[in-house]
Amino acid sequence: MPIIEFLAPHFAFLSEPTAWAALVTLIVMEVVLGIDNLIFISILTNKLPKEQQSRARRLGIGAALIMRLLLLATISFIVQLTTPVFTAFGHAFSWRDIILIAGGLFLVWKATREIHQAVDPHSENEHDIASGTLKLSLGAAIFQILLLDLVFSVDSIITAVGMTDEIVIMYIAVIAAVTVMLVAADPLAKFIAANPSIVMLALGFLLMIGMTLIADGMGFHVPKGYIYAAMGFSALVEALNMLARRRRSEGEGGR
């Protein structure tokens, strides 16, 4: 079979244990990085009309998958983004740094705006009515999803290049991670919508991730383990608070 003969050299890595280890590591890394995207997507799409929310998640994540696969096809260009283009404040900035800083600023702005709306929703609604603009459209939501996914994609691809030379492994890892995102998107969004206190916690996560991207772009690397450990601890505390509130409501209901 000509097709099998053509594909066989590309899957020769399946016989190497090191390649399998790299594949598993990359999938885990992509899934973990996808948590940031999922939180952002959940908060963003929950602002859409209910009948559009699930569709927006599928379209946004599906378009993000296509974009990531296209970026992998230009991997030689992506790798060159780490080459310094100018120096300022004693740090040599590359296009990767500029992309991370721009993405971090966007995330900080978006999270701050959402926190402001959550704390004082009336002023935001009055502004929307006065300006005659809609809160959020389907196209705007998908555009913002793609914009942020571009930032994370460039960073994850550059990291992946340092872990393996097999482009097929990178493709499999990206497809597996995005599949997990598609499966988890609706349940996570519904959980966030059903628990208002989770929204503020998630916005705090996005704010922290945005500041981390800016710091990374400025040359101050913050280990991802510290970030996700803080997020996990905060989520555990909030889970205990939710359990305590549920027990109190059950106790008051039984009286």
Would you give an account of this structure?
With 255 residues, the protein is mainly alpha-helical. It has one domain (17-83, 90-246). Helix content is 80%, strand content 4%. The chain is built from ten helices and two strands; from the N terminus they run ααααββαααααα. The protein has helices spanning 2-7, 17-45, 50-73, 75-79, 95-119, 121-131, 138-161, 167-194, 196-217, 224-253, and strands at 84-88, 91-94. The chain has a two-stranded antiparallel sheet with strand order 1-2. β1 (84-88) and β2 (91-94) form a beta hairpin. The chain is globular, with a radius of gyration of 21 Å. The model is unreliable at 3-8 and 126-134 (pLDDT under 50).
Work out the number of β strands.
2
The chain-level mean pLDDT equals: 78
- Which spans have pLDDT < 50 for at least 5 consecutive residues? 3-8, 126-134
Describe the main β-sheet briefly. 2 strands, antiparallel
DSSP helix fraction: over 70%
Radius of gyration equals 21 Å
From the spread of the alpha carbons, the general shape counts as globular
Number of continuous helical runs: 10
Identify the quaternary structure here.
single chain
Q: Separation of termini?
A: 74 Å
Structural class: mainly alpha
Task: Give the DSSP E fraction (strand runs of 2 or more residues).
Answer: under 5%
Q: List the secondary-structure elements in sequence, H or E.
A: HHHHEEHHHHHH
Q: How many discrete domains?
A: 1
Largest sheet: spatial strand order: 1-2
Give a topology summary:
Layout: H1 2-7, H2 17-45, H3 50-73, H4 75-79, E1 84-88, E2 91-94, H5 95-119, H6 121-131, H7 138-161, H8 167-194, H9 196-217, H10 224-253
Helix pairs in contact: 2-7, 2-8, 2-9, 3-7, 3-8, 5-6, 5-7, 5-9, 8-9, 9-10
